[in-house]
Write a structure and sequence with these properties.
The complex is a heterotrimer of chains A (273), B (652) and C (535). Chain B is mainly α. Chain B is 70% helix and 3% strand. Chain B has a two-stranded antiparallel sheet with strand order 1-2. Chain C has 535 residues and is mainly alpha-helical. Chain C has 19 helices and 6 strands. A 3-stranded antiparallel sheet of chain C has the order 1-2-3. In chain C, α11 runs parallel beside α17 and α16 crosses α18. In chain C, 67% of the residues are buried. Chains in contact: A-B, A-C, B-C.
Chain lengths: 273, 652, 535
């Protein structure tokens, strides 16, 4: 009885907590609290098998699975708690409250006497007693549970698994395809040049310079270039800018540099403006 | 077969109260074994016509007419056979198959052919055959004529089922069937929104009646463990009076719906949106009399339920006046006739409510009314046919020259309905008034007054249509209808005149004795001949008033827009509006207005309001169905609370 | 202790149809794992078909061999340690369930209505809206794929239902409830068209179903607290003995009833019905609407009649309230509906109310007047008429199609009677049967449940029932009228010609509906012959 009065409030609070916390991961942890408390209650009620099962299966396996999933989704994920239906919350609290009070009053009023029969049930050992019930009276229900588990597995496959339409591409396939492309269209065979690395810029969005000084556009990841944030090779812009500075200070200029600037700098200027 | 009229009489003498005949049929032999064919023929016709599609377009209408004529021939043969039998052997039951049987409770697909059904069979098949024939001409230009005949055949089959069933469940089957056919036919010209609305209204109001009918059948089943006429009639005397009263009142509710009795009368006027042959067949001659049939057939119920009987009389009196007053107020020729139908059915119900004194006369009037009302409706159809489908009497006038056959036949019907001495209606209505006076002066006065008003509005109709000045549009050229239409008119007119022969030597009452019991002889305060004289005088007064008010004046083409009677009462003479003039005194006018308004709004309002309420409730409740799981879960939780509370509340 | 253990007597001779069904489902799962994709559909549907045929034959054989009990008032055996009761009502319901499932199977396998495509989603895990695989036109896509898992799922659901209506204790009943529910949740989410609606429906059904299952378990615990056993016969003994904390029994029973009433869609537990019926693939809706109701009413009858038969006056008022609410709620909500499947969903709610009216007709066999219809017989018969008409009517709704799927709106069906009189005619017959017009099966069904309830004195409920069936006639007939008496719209939906699978289903349902209306005797006798429940 003492165990009950200690554990019950903890369980109820934790269970309510599951409802009210915003972050899913907190809810999962609170659920663990409920389950562990429940296991302790089983132990106090002389049901060692259930105690072990509760810990191993629920707290051990199922809770861990929950947490894994939550980690995958992201621990920061939290629900929106804005209620859009007028009156829903008030009514829910009211009806829930009435139901709780009703059950509390009725069941409490029923006044169950001291529990009897535990000794008889556990005679010959708790696990044996459980097995006796499970394999005699409820053997069919027990077996039928198999159908439930198979359905669940099948359901998981149906809803979550995506079958491949075509066999997965292996590395060998990809290599062969690349060589074939080289042979047929003369596509570049080797790895692409890495983006340029320059002290003044985030390197990934800046094309590398080829040995001849021209920018290798392909070296910028397509994602970035598609988004339009790829920059032209910074050397030119920098040269451009330096040239501009130089021009403003002195009036002598290097015509060779100028032509290079004209070659690729117009887009950059437009972008900068 | 243990029953005979002699045992009836003795048991009546012993029992103190009137004995009620028990339905106990003998098995069919000879021609009677073909009884099922009477229903099967039109049913087969309906199936062929409705399923056959366009293949049957060319000859479908003739098939429809032929099946009904076949049924008519069979009915006549069986009737003749039945005539040759003893009273005691005039109930013939045919068991077709067990419809459903549960333990000892059986509902067989059983038919019962007795003097009552025999008369109905003749009336239904005979009038139907004529109306089918007439419709061949009337619907000639309608592209959906085949379908129309299919529905008509369906109706006839259902109506025959109604009057031949030997079991209330079977009656209910026919009851629903005629309801369906009527619904289909009222809305036949579906392109007219008014027709669709009328069909819907008839449907909704008839559902109310059906509630009564179904509950009555349920109650019978629970009380007697059977719903067969035989079983119920045998056990009816043993049930408590309150049970019988409940059954009787529920049956009355059903009868009110089908027979357009107050308070479920509102659909009948609107039902005139259907093609005229439909109005003639369904909404005048046959289906609307189903309520009278039901009350008469259930005589063993009503005889044991005096309160219900009184209710029938009250409803009947109200309706017969109500319908008559409406008849005075309408300009639409079909609506006048519809009002008069209501009123005449009121007479029948009145007679049926009087008990054994009246059952036979109710049926007698039903038969004669079937003849003359069908005659007049078809006549009205013929008039409309000749005037380009105009129904407004204000646009007629002096049609007697243009359509002599229609005029003459219509006149026969007219004389019959007002009760011109010698014509069929005279005999039947006179008998009812007689029985009513014997029962109760007030009831008798109502019936008498009704006769006067009937004479008034029918004369008004007659004058506005066939006499007075021509008021039709210049482009309308009234002409006589084709032979196929006038022949049925002539036949029906002859029957309207001669229908009274059924009363010769009290034939009809004796004939029906095995079904409804011996006619009680009642004491009249005045000699019969005097009463008849009074009736004739009252009728003459009505006619005279109409001639004075309508015949002698100019009938305006447009109905005067004289809405507020109170302020314009004085001026109404100038308008010469027959409606308002007809009952010159102000209270009369107010009464007419009130009744018409109640008819249009009050009763409709209740019924349609009920329908509207359901609709409104529906849209409110739909809001709870908002699609959110949490709301649904809340309702589950709320339900759990209710369940737990309901469970616990019982024991605490 | 261990050496003393003897297993319970399991009467295989009585139970084998049940095991045949579960076995079929397992074979189906194995086929799914090993058969090549192209052959799976054919193999799966044949396996399921054979399994169902075996189950049907088995049910008949078992029914013929049931031993008589209680002087012929009941027939059957309690087996598997009291967990399963194979008696007259059980085999009747089994037969009915298998027949309905055959109808469901035929609709599942239909592929001609949707331009040669199966009725289920190609790949359920794809996000809604994306139909095809990686490539463009000509590339392999999921379009013509099919989840052949639906066949074993269907059979699993059938197994759960058969166990559900046969279970002799609450624990088995609960397990069976879950076995029948889980496949249905899944099947609901697999519609090929309107994926989002379908997934939403599955989700709602699952969440609410789980919620109501919670009530079942809670109630079960309370009943155990009262009776000390979960066995229904044991509960009956405890009830008859009286004493004890009766309030535990009542509250427990109320909560068990929450779950059972949820399954049949009684007001106020009905709210899932329209959404789920609408969202689920129509083949599933047809199956679910008919079969779930049959199984769940079997369970309700068994729970109330066997377990709580002697506490009749305690639960009758509760059912009065629920029945009245359900009938009125169903018809009133249906009046305003403009969507066919939702309309039928509300009508099925109303039918739940009519069935509950029949359930109310319980009387002790001594009180039953001579020749009076027993409520069990009435409800069983009603279930048959309702089940058949429901499968038929939903099958018809699959045939009328717009470009994007089925033509759901009532307005789209306008004038169908002109363009395709056969389809509209079949639909009208089913509607008339659901409305309970004489000469259709529905009339006799309604008649029998009303009569049985009236016989037990539940007059107010019968009055409400008649009123609501008459309101119901209004919206059924209104639909018929729009089909037959209005002109079809310009862009009228296409009426497809289905493969024999659907045509046969509709035709058989149609014939049965009319036949049961004209000569219901044999089936009524059969339902009566089933006798009472065996305890």
């Amino acid at each position: 009885m003492i165990a009950f009065w200690v554990l019950a409030p903890v369980m109820v609070i934790a269970a309510l907590g599951i409802l009210f916390v915003r972050k899913a991961v907190h809810a999962a942890l609170l659920l663990a609290v409920v389950m562990i408390s429940l296991a302790m209650l089983y132990a106090a009620l002389e049901a060692p098998f259930l105690f072990a099962v509760q810990i191993i299966v629920y707290t051990g396996a199922i809770m861990m699975l929950f947490l894994f999933v939550l980690m995958l989704v992201g621990v920061d994920a939290s629900d929106s708690v804005v209620e859009t239906i007028r009156g829903q919350r008030v009514l829910a609290v009211m009806v829930g409250g009435i139901f709780a009070v009703l059950l509390g009053v009725i069941v409490g009023q029923a006044g169950i006497g001291t529990a009897v029969g535990l000794g008889a049930a556990n005679e010959g050992g708790n696990i044996e007693g459980l097995a006796e019930v499970l394999f005699s009276q409820y053997v069919l229900a027990f077996e039928a549970t198999a159908a439930l588990l198979i359905t669940a597995a099948l359901g998981a496959m149906v809803l979550a698994h995506r079958e491949r339409l075509v066999p997965r591409e292996t590395q060998a396939d990809r290599a062969a395809a690349r060589v074939r492309a080289y042979g047929e269209h003369g596509d570049h065979l080797g790895p692409l040049a890495a983006p340029g690395v320059y002290a003044r810029h985030n390197a990934v969005d800046t094309p590398a310079l080829l040995p001849d000084g021209s920018p290798a556009e392909q070296s910028v990841p397509t994602v970035i270039s598609n988004r339009g944030t790829g920059r032209p090779s910074p050397s030119y812009r920098d040269v451009d800018r330096v040239v501009g500075q130089l021009q403003s200070r002195r009036d002598d200029q290097d015509p060779a540099t100028d032509t290079v600037v004209e070659g690729s700098g117009s887009a950059a200027r437009g972008e900068d403006a | 077969m243990t029953l005979s009229s002699s045992t009836l009489l003795t048991s009546a003498a012993e029992g103190g109260h009137h004995s009620v005949p028990v339905v106990e049929a003998m098995s069919p032999d000879g021609v009677f074994s073909l009884l099922w064919l009477v229903i099967a023929l039109p049913l087969a016709g309906a199936v062929v016509l409705l399923v056959g599609g366009r293949l049957t377009d060319r000859w479908g209408h003739w098939l429809g007419t032929a099946t009904v004529t076949g049924s008519f021939v069979l009915s006549v043969v069986m009737f003749v056979q039945l005539l040759g039998r003893d009273d005691a052997e005039r109930q013939i039951g045919q068991h077709l198959w067990d419809w459903f049987a549960v333990g000892d409770f059986q509902v067989g697909m059983d038919l019962l052919y007795d003097p009552l059904s025999a008369l109905f069979l003749l009336l239904i098949t005979g009038v139907s055959a004529l109306i089918h024939l007439y419709s061949v001409g009337y619907m000639e230009h309608d592209p959906r004529r085949r379908r129309f005949f299919g529905y008509l055949n369906l109706f006839v089959a259902a109506m025959l089922m109604l009057v031949l069933a030997a079991d209330y469940v079977g009656v209910f089957l026919g009851w629903e069937g005629v309801g369906l056919a009527s619904y289909l036919l009222i809305g036949f010209w579906q392109h007219k929104p008014s027709a669709a609305a009328a069909a819907k209204k008839a449907f909704v109001i008839n559902r109310v009646g059906d509630i009564g009918m179904s509950l009555a059948i349920m109650l019978m089943f629970v009380t007697f463990g059977t719903t067969a006429f035989a079983g119920v009639s045998a056990a009816a005397g043993d049930a408590t009076e309150s049970t019988m009263t409940a059954i009787g009142l529920l049956l009355l509710l059903g009868a009110c719906g089908k027979s357009a009795q107050v308070p479920l009368q509102a659909w009948l006027l609107d039902a005139m949106e259907g093609p005229t042959p439909v109005s003639a067949l369904i909404h005048a001659a046959t289906m609307v009399t189903a309520g009278v049939y039901l009350v008469t057939r259930s005589n063993f119920v009503f005889e044991n339920a005096p309160v219900a009987q009184t209710a029938v009389v009250v409803v009947a009196c109200v309706t017969l006046l109500w319908g008559a007053v409406i008849g005075c107020a309408k300009d639409d020729i079909k609506k006048v006739l519809a009002g008069s139908t209501m009123s005449q059915i009121g007479y029948m119900m009145l007679a049926a409510g009087l008990g054994p004194a009246g059952y036979a006369f109710a049926i007698f009037h039903l038969v004669t009314h079937g003849f003359f009302k069908a005659n007049m409706f078809l006549g009205a159809g013929s008039v409309m046919h000749g005037t380009g489908d105009d129904v407004n009497m204000r646009h007629y006038g002096a049609l007697r020259k243009a359509m002599p056959v229609t005029f003459l036949t219509f006149a026969m019907g007219y004389l019959a309905i007002i009760g011109f001495p010698g014509f069929s209606g005279f005999w039947s209505k006179d008998k009812i008034i007689e029985a009513a006076v014997a029962e109760n002066y007030l009831v008798g006065a109502a019936a008498l007054l009704g006769a006067g008003v009937t004479a008034f509005y029918m004369t008004r109709l007659m004058l506005m249509t066939f006499f007075t000045k021509e008021r039709w549009e210049p482009e309308v050229h009234p002409h006589e209808s084709p032979k196929v239409m006038t022949v049925p008119l002539v036949v029906l007119a002859a029957l309207s005149v001669l229908g009274g022969v059924l009363l010769l030597g009290d034939w009809v009452t004796t004939w029906l004795t095995p079904v409804v019991g011996e006619v009680e002889h009642h004491e009249l305060p005045v000699p019969v001949i005097v009463l008849t004289g009074i009736v004739v005088v009252v009728v003459a007064l009505g006619v005279g008033l109409a001639v004075l008010l309508v015949g002698r004046r100019e009938v305006p083409r447009e109905a005067p827009q004289d809405v507020s009677f109170v302020t314009r009462a004085a001026r109404s003479d100038l308008y010469g509006d027959a409606i308002n003039d007809g009952l010159v005194v102000r209270p009369g006018g107010v009464l007419v207005r009130g009744l018409v308004a109640t008819d249009a709004r009050g009763v409709d309002g209740v019924v349609e309001g009920g329908a509207g309420l359901v609709g409104a409730l529906s849209s409110v409740l739909r809001r709870t169905q908002n699609g959110y799981v949490r709301t649904y879960a809340l309702s589950v939780l709320g339900g759990a609370v209710i369940l737990v509370l309901a469970m616990v509340a019982v024991t605490w | 202790m261990n050496d003393e253990f003897t297993g319970p007597a399991i009467e295989w001779a009585r139970l084998w149809p049940l095991f045949a069904v579960f076995g079929t489902a397992l074979v189906g799962v194995a086929v799914e794992a090993f058969a090549p994709r192209s052959a799976r559909c054919l193999i799966q549907s044949s396996v399921a078909g054979v399994g169902l045929a075996v189950a049907l034959v088995g049910t008949v054989l078992v029914a013929l061999e049931l031993p008589e009990r209680a002087g012929g008032a009941a027939r059957g055996d309690v087996t598997a340690g009291g967990a399963v009761v194979v008696d007259g009502p059980t085999v009747f319901l089994w037969g009915l369930l298998v027949v309905v499932t055959v109808g469901g199977l035929l609709l599942f396998a239909e592929r001609r209505v949707d331009a040669g495509l199966p009725v289920f989603a190609g790949q359920a895990s794809l996000p809604p809206g994306s139909t095809a695989g990686p490539g463009g036109p000509g590339e392999p896509s999921y379009e013509d794929w099919e989840h052949t898992e639906v066949y074993p799922l269907l059979v699993f659901a059938l197994g759960g239902m058969m166990l559900f209506c046969a279970s002799g204790d609450l624990l088995t009943m609960f397990v069976a409830l879950e076995i029948l529910s889980l496949p249905l949740y899944l099947l609901c989410g697999l519609a090929r068209r309107r994926r989002l609606l379908s997934q939403e429906a599955a989700m709602k059904y699952f969440l609410l179903g789980a919620f109501s299952s919670g009530f079942f378990v809670y109630g079960m615990a309370l009943v155990y607290g009262y009776a000390g056993t979960l066995n229904l016969a044991g509960v009956a003994v405890a009830v008859r003995a009286g004493g004890g904390q009766e309030v535990l029994l009542l509250v427990g029973a109320a909560m068990v009833m929450v779950a059972l009433l949820f399954k049949v869609g009684a007001v106020p537990f009905h709210s899932w019905t329209p959404d789920v019926y609408q969202g689920a693939p129509t083949a599933v809706t047809a199956y679910m609407a008919a079969a779930t109701k049959i199984a769940a009413f079997g369970a309700i009858l068994r729970f109330l009649y066997v377990g709580l038969g002697d506490a009749r006056w305690d639960w009758a008022p509760l059912l009065w309230v629920v029945a009245i609410l359900t009938m009125l709620g169903g018809v009133v909500l249906a009046v305003g509906q403009t969507e066919i499947k939702r309309l039928l969903a509300y009508s099925s709610i109303a039918h739940t109310g009519f069935l509950l009216t029949g359930v109310l007709g319980l009387q002790a066999s001594g009180d039953l007047a001579e020749g009076q219809i027993s409520s069990l017989q009435a409800v069983l018969f009603y279930l048959a008429t309702y089940g058949v008409a429901t499968v038929g009517i939903f099958a018809v709704t699959t045939l009328v199609r717009d470009p994007g799927g089925e033509a759901g709106s009532v307005a789209r069906w306008t004038g169908l009677g002109r363009t395709s009189p056969l389809v509209a005619g079949a639909f009208a017959v089913f509607l008339l049967s659901l409305a309970g017009i004489p000469l259709t099966a529905g009339f006799v069904g309604k008649w029998s449940v009303f009569a049985s309830a009236a016989g037990a004195g539940a007059w107010p409920v019968v009055a409400v029932a008649i009123t609501s069936s008459i309101i119901a006639v209004y919206f059924y007939v209104r639909h018929i009228v729009t089909m037959f008496f209005a002109d079809p719209p310009e862009d009228a939906p296409v009426v497809v010609v289905p493969s024999p699978l659907t045509s046969v289903t509709i035709a058989v349902a149609l014939i049965v509906t009319v036949a049961l209306g004209v000569v219901p005797g044999p089936l009524l006798d059969l339902a009566g012959h089933a006798g009472q429940f065996v305890r």
